[in-house]
Amino acid sequence: MRKSxxxxxxxxxxxxxxxxxxxALLEKMQGISFQGRxxxxxxxxxxxxxxxx
Length: 53
Hints:
With 53 residues, this protein is mostly helical.
């Protein structure tokens, strides 16, 4: 991933809505800081791996 790719998407605040689901939290993290995005991307890869297993 290039710097321009990372900086081209603005961050969004993470809304905490009381959801008790870790998967819902990881989905919401796609728009937050750099490391939050990386964690969300890793989660998407993990979901695809389990969907094909």
